[in-house]
Amino acid sequence: MSEYHQPVMLKECIEGLAINPDGVYVDVTFGGGGHSKAILEQLSEQGKLYAFDQDADAKQEAKEIDHPGFYLIRANFRYLKKYLKMYGVSKVDGILADLGISSHQIDTPERGFSTRFDAYLDMRMSESIEVTAQDVVNEYNESELHKVLGMYGELKNAKTVASTIVRARQDAAINTVEELKSAVKRHAPRGKEFKFFAQVFQALRIEVNEEIKVLEEMLEQAAEVLKPQGRLVVMSYHSLEDRPVKNYIQKGRFRGEAEKDMYGNVLKPLRAINRKIITAQEEEIALNNRARSAKLRIAEKLF
Q1: Which of 169, 178, 215, 235 has the fewest Cβ atoms nearer than 10 Å?
Q2: d(Cα 160, Cα 189) in Å, to the nearest integer?
Q3: CA dist., res. 52 & res. 75, Å (int)
Q4: Distance of CA 217 to CAs 116, 210, 253, 270, Å?
Q5: In angstroms, how far is CA 34 from the centroid of its own chain?
Q6: Whole-model pTM?
Q7: Quick check: 168 and 137 in contact, CB under 8 A?
Q8: For the segment 279-290, what is each residue's pLDDT rounded down to a tens digit?
Q9: Which residues contact 103 (CB under 8 A, 6 or more apart)?
Q10: Taking CA 147 as the corner, what is the angle to CA 142 and CA 152, rounded to the nearest 5 degrees?
Q11: Which DSSP category does 69 fall into?
């Protein structure tokens, strides 16, 4: 698991699941298997863990696991209910999601996720995804690029950057990491170039993989498959991920006002276990910089 990131707030995540040794659990983001292995350590031979990961590299990591109740599902977690049904599972005791991109994916140059390596602009988390970052950069019109960069990259100058990309690609297609950086670098605030490029790449990655839409689909399905008192544990790394998690736990909706009954009670399937966001301890942040931006939310199925 050395090529994958060390699991952030591992102890807090496992405690949040309140594991029943004979229970049924789901890790929707298997990655390097760190969280899955920790869950399996708590399970008896009767316990079951279904781990989802659409990245082909996860299959190799799963070979290290020999627990009789472990199953790796090579699929996007937006198909949570579909694949659990295929295994004859209708209800589970807990679901864990460690969102965002893994260090392994970032550090694999040919995947095109990183601003540090020159590579083809791919950014797909699965080869089954048809649209690449190169397609977005070269085929989206200016208003579409403006929306992507502003919404998912949270760039203050998203309109200007979108316009620059459209002009640059008229001369020649923008196919690589360095070509994209070269096209937009003059709009990077001085001294904050790394953050600027990171925001541009984040926007493209989220668009290519439909990350926010996929997250919302998973959260709704998670509420359906959890048993009463079942736990949902979600760790996010930026506000775009944390916002829908927070809204769904608090209001049962991703946007707008919460629906209420005639007595004014909010109609929602989950209740928050932790009133405040759980963040990593300073000791962990010192050892693992990825923990700095992590936000952990734990919820329980109400009925």
Answers
A1: 178
A2: 13
A3: 6
A4: 32, 11, 12, 15
A5: 16
A6: 0.91
A7: no
A8: 999 999 999 888
A9: 3, 4, 5, 290
A10: 135
A11: T
